[in-house]
Design the sequence.
């Protein structure tokens, strides 16, 4: 039924399960090792819930030394490893396999130090994204990348996927906000890459590691940049009669030299779903909506919004609704940030994540609708319009294998469309297993081989998260 | 021999030929940054000069692509026409190295040259969205693309940015751009010592007023009095307000003077290109990266060690340029003063000295092993700029 293949588990490893667990038990206290079937269930999937595999065991080390010991052991024994943060990956990046040990960093969850004068914080990798901002917000600072899953997802996972969020248009994604990591290599060696300085000492290894989907090592600590909060932030809602008009408005705002903090798009199905859930005051009589946020002092926000509204009017905006209070602002963002969760309440969905050049947005939106309709399914679109990162949510019934196959086929068509329109398969969720088999649509064999050669420098035996990112056939050895 | 391909395929062909005959290649753009890195001797030179021109510019998408050999001036002129700019404010190395060539966009990517706005808008590697390059096997590889958000596969873009041509011969680069600010204003505080200057810069950068650059020119560096400069760039109507508010934040450090427009731009260009330390030409120049608040202590340690030098601080103190009379001992002094949490690059010295000292900060064995492995994964026979960053690599 399911169309994404998993490698056949290595029978030799499965046969040695008891020994392997005994070996792990010698390295970790019992509360840090999960072996019973019931408890392993909690780790069998991530947010790509249509796929699951029970791992051999789950190790939950408490510090870098324990991570290193477990990795050195697995490496020696030839056991595969699947690194895990909070397991919110939408691409199946954290889904285990039967012959692999999951190493979860959830117990590494302390903020180690905060340094306002240098505007950085040192954190353990298992801290949640939001907890960093929560810790420094009272002092007027924040950590910028804000994935909608920020309450749950970890910095480790954010580094794994180079995650983004609504406010990345202005502040950048994870890689732009991380200065250094402590990472355990496959053989247990601990390396410090980067630090508090703003540029690398030699090759930009950090740039390679962030977004490498747990294939190069396990990150245990990170130095993140902290930014000072703006004096104020205010979103405005624009309702349009067509998605095209909304898309053109986005391009015109940027074309006018204005880069707002965020520019989020929702089509009618998404508006309805989110409004029913969050009661955010979204307009229901429009085909498409933009949330555009500006920052600054009261007067600055007024002035910028005046410019932006003037542009929106040129594109026939039908509804203009400025937030008038902090409560309204919070509601507007609650509606947007709960989009996936709210959708999950009305149907099962798969979430695509392709990026396209912003000029292609109207065309790709139109084609997306046509593609999904041709499979007899429905789609809701909610995405980061300012940077062209689309999130079509394809609605289907997970208990109907035929529908699941159709949803996946539609998703694949859409991702190919994104690549053909000059974009890419994934803007922020990662390749995982979900887009692995589409990699050849974006990359040539030469491109992929060069990536695999770099991968092999870190993990020549394909032990680290081995079923991800690269098509299962045609893999190169070290 | 200098090979000047005019097509990407010719470049690939040239590298393949070099690989099969084991001939090493120096990679060259405008030739304005050749003194950056270790001096190397190769059999041939591969120039990007024949690969020139903007291949795509979409102002509404904030991106352009260009062949690697395109002169930066040509790109800046095209961006200027649409009111846009390279956000990371790349340094022009001709001030420190001399030379009359025209810097190329590929050279900027290869050296990861980022200027004062790095603290706010990101470094070259943050804005470099995509590259095409020829690896040491003569294969044409692409990574990244032309969209701002892209996490598809392993990112080979950033590791090539700042690799000084040791991993590949870049043929085409794609950068994100930003609209030029409507108005620029710089606040200048005078007579602060290093310690107070860094405190002032930290206060400014920790304020909500989006300071886009923060630099300190100590007394007798580019002027008799010490100057601490903080730049604001935004919509015209915002600048008046922000300048007033920022001055309040800085009031404990003295009364800030304002400069605008051409005067402000000239100052930042001079800081970007390290004008104040460029002469005398035979002074050795160091570029040191540290956590900003550690800068004053580091400079104090250098003085204690008896080093006679002049310094300029950018990036709020996180980037220190140090000029001193050329001597081999300075290397030990500078690197010992780092205290573990920073790194120093020897930016300018005689060929003899750059050949005998570590130009780039020595790294521990595990990181060197990774570095060597990565080099070999791109260039197994070590034919591309061999030894430019590290001896033997
Ligand atoms: C409702 C919802 C909304 C979301 N919204 C967004 C959004 O707005 N923007 C966005 O970018 N993403 C979003 N996501 C996707 C997801 O939250 C991110 O990919 C997130 O970064 C994953 O973090 P995690 O801690 O759950 O990591 P996991 O899912 O556990 O792992 C993610 C990847 O990182 C690797 N990894 C984990 N830990 C480590 C480690 N210590 N060292 C090395 N590699 C490691 C894993 O192997 C895996 O490949 C959303 C997901 C959901 C369910």
Sequence:
């Amino acid at each position: 039924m399911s169309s994404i293949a998993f490698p056949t588990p290595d029978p030799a490893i499965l046969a040695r399960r008891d020994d392997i667990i005994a070996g792990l038990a010698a390295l970790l206290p019992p509360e840090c090792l999960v072996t019973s079937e019931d408890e392993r269930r909690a780790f069998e999937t991530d947010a790509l819930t249509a796929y699951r595999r029970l791992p051999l065991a789950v190790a939950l080390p408490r510090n870098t030394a324990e991570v290193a010991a477990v990795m050195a052991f697995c490496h020696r024994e030839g056991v595969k490893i699947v690194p895990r943060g909070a397991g919110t990956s939408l691409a199946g990046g954290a889904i285990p396999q039967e012959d692999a040990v999951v190493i979860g960093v959830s117990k590494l969850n302390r903020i180690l130090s905060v340094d306002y004068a240098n505007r950085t914080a040192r954190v353990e990798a298992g801290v949640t994204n939001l907890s960093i901002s929560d810790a420094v917000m009272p002092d007027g600072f924040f950590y910028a990348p804000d994935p909608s899953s920020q309450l749950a997802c970890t910095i480790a996972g954010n580094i794994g996927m180079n995650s983004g969020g609504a406010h990345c248009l202005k502040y950048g994604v994870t890689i732009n906000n991380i200065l250094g990591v402590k990472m355990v290599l496959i053989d247990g060696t601990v390396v410090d890459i980067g630090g508090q300085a703003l540029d690398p000492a030699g090759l930009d290894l950090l740039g390679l590691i962030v977004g490498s989907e747990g294939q190069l090592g396990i990150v245990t600590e990170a130095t993140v940049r902290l930014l000072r909060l703006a004096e104020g932030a205010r979103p405005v809602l624009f309702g349009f009669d067509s998605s095209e008009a909304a898309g053109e408005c986005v391009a015109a705002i940027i074309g006018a030299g204005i880069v707002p903090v965020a520019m989020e798009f929702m089509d009618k199905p998404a508006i309805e779903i989110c409004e029913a859930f969050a009661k955010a005051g979204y307009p229901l009589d429009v085909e498409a909506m933009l949330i555009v946020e500006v920052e600054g002092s009261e007067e600055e926000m007024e002035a910028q919004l005046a410019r932006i509204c003037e542009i929106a009017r040129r594109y026939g905006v039908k509804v203009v609704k400025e937030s008038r209070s902090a409560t309204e602002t919070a509601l507007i963002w609650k509606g947007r940030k709960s989009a996936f969760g709210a959708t999950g309440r009305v149907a099962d969905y798969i979430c695509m994540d392709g990026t396209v050049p912003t000029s292609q947005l109207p065309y790709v939106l139109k084609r997306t609708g046509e593609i999904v309709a041709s499979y007899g399914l429905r789609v809701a679109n909610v995405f980061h319009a300012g940077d062209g990162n689309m999130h079509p949510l394809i609605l289907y019934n997970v208990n109907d294998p035929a529908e699941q196959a159709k949803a996946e086929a539609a998703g694949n068509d859409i991702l190919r469309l994104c690549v053909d329109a000059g974009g890419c398969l994934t803007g922020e969720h990662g390749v995982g297993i979900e887009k692995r088999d589409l990699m050849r649509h974006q990359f040539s064999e030469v491109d992929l081989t060069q990536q695999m050669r770099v991968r092999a420098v870190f993990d020549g035996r394909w032990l680290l998260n081995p079923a991800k990112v690269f098509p299962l056939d045609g893999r190169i050895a070290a | 021999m200098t090979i000047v391909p005019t097509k990407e395929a010719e470049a690939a062909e040239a590298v393949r030929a070099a690989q099969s005959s084991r001939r090493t290649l120096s990679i060259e753009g405008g030739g304005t940054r050749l003194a950056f890195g270790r001096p190397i001797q190769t059999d041939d030179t591969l120039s990007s000069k024949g690969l020139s021109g903007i291949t795509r510019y979409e102002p509404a998408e904030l991106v352009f692509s260009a062949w690697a050999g395109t002169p930066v001036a040509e790109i800046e002129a095209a961006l200027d026409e649409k009111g846009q700019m390279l956000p990371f404010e790349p340094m022009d190395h001709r001030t420190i190295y001399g030379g009359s060539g025209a810097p190329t966009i590929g050279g900027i990517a290869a050296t990861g040259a980022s200027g004062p706005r790095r603290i706010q808008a990101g470094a070259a590697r943050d804005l470099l969205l995509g590259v095409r390059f020829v690896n040491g096997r003569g294969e044409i590889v692409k990574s990244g693309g032309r969209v701002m958000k892209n996490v598809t596969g392993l990112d080979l873009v950033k590791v090539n940015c700042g690799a000084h041509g040791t991993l590949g011969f870049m043929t085409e680069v794609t950068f994100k751009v930003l609209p030029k600010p409507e108005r620029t204003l710089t606040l200048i505080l005078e007579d602060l010592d290093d310690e107070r200057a860094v405190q002032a810069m930290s206060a400014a950068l920790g304020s909500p007023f989006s300071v886009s650059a923060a630099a300190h020119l100590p007394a007798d560096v580019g002027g008799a009095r010490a100057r601490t400069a903080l730049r604001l760039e935004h919509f015209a109507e915002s600048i008046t307000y922000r300048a007033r508010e920022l001055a309040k934040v800085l009031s404990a450090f003295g009364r800030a003077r304002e400069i605008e427009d051409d005067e402000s731009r000239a100052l930042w260009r001079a800081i970007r290109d390290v004008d104040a330390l460029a002469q005398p030409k035979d002074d050795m120049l160091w570029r040191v990266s540290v956590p900003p608040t550690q800068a004053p202590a580091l400079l104090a340690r250098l003085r204690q060690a008896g080093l006679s030098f002049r310094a300029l601080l950018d990036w709020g103190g996180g980037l220190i340029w140090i000029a001193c009379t050329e001597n081999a001992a300075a290397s030990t002094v500078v690197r010992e003063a780092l205290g573990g949490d920073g790194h120093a690059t020897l930016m300018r010295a005689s060929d003899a000295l750059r050949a005998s000292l570590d130009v780039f900060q020595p790294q521990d064995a595990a990181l060197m092993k990774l570095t060597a492995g990565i080099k070999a994964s791109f260039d197994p026979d070590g034919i591309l700029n061999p030894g430019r960053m590290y001896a033997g690599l």
